[in-house]
Amino acid sequence: MSRTIADAFELLVQAEQLGPRLEAAALALSQLTGLAEEQAWLAAARTRLASIQLDTQATAKLLARALRLPELAPVKAERGKLLQLAIADEVERLEAAITFVSSGRSPLLDTLFLDLKLPVLRKCTRNELEKFCIEIERRINSSYAKRLLATERYQATVVPTVTALRTAIGVWASVFVDPPLEGAPADSLREAVLAASNAIDLPFRQARLLAQTALLPAAELFDAAGLLTPLGKKRGVSDSHPILEKEPPDPLLPTPEERAEIAELHALA
């Protein structure tokens, strides 16, 4: 099958997203009764997708590199938001790791974040994010921060989070700071994207069709169970179940009962 680079890119993005969404769908379907066959079909979809043996980290790197291709300029902003969220996540993990290993006020936390103009990383502009990345990298490279990170206290827990943050920043910068690829490097990257998409095309489509078949009769039951978002319901009649089109819920988010308990605690504070 002949496909464009844009189509190949989109197929890899969908394959990257389908695994977590199938897991969320399986959990939702398990809460309903009388759907043994549908559960078996969904299990078959997960098995078929697993047969791809998709290396998610390698795929994410390939997708990030591919955004330097001129023909993928229209999707750069959307994918860039995911890379920006990855930076925000790593910043939060770094702060949490430093706090975890420190008792009381942490000199490393002050060195990296004191008086730092920290934008709302998940929503800030590209220029704001670029300024933040330059500044946090400058602080990490300071002699005092290096000396602290070299101590036993920070080696096991904090240093890996620093490395992860630098990696996330590097991936984002490779898309938005480095110039677009041209010539032989661009042609080689196009071949890699097309080859990767061709390798997963058939099993991915089979997995998705199996999942759509499994979830098709359960739409009304999911509505009754409150498992669909309003966004999903607005999409109208479709063979593609909304749960396959949206990100799976965060398992760490509080349940309605837990939210009520938290509200009571806040009211008593």
Characterization of the model:
The chain has 2 domains: 1-69 and 182-269, no CATH class; 76-179, no CATH class. Helix 1 packs parallel to helix 10 (183-215). Residues 223-239 have low confidence and may be disordered. It is built from 13 helices and no strands. The chain has helices at 5-30, 36-50, 56-66, 73-101, 107-113, 126-140, 143-149, 152-155, 158-176, 183-215, 219-224, 230-233, 256-268. It starts with a helix and ends with a helix. The chain is mainly α.
In short:
The chain is mostly helical. Helices cover 70% and strands 0% of the residues.
Overview features:
269 residues, 13 helices, mainly alpha, 0% strand, single chain
Report the C-alpha radius of gyration, rounded: 22 Å
Helix content: over 70%
User: What would the average pLDDT be, to the nearest integer?
Assistant: 81
Number of domains: 2
Describe the secondary-structure layout.
Blueprint: H1 5-30, H2 36-50, H3 56-66, H4 73-101, H5 107-113, H6 126-140, H7 143-149, H8 152-155, H9 158-176, H10 183-215, H11 219-224, H12 230-233, H13 256-268
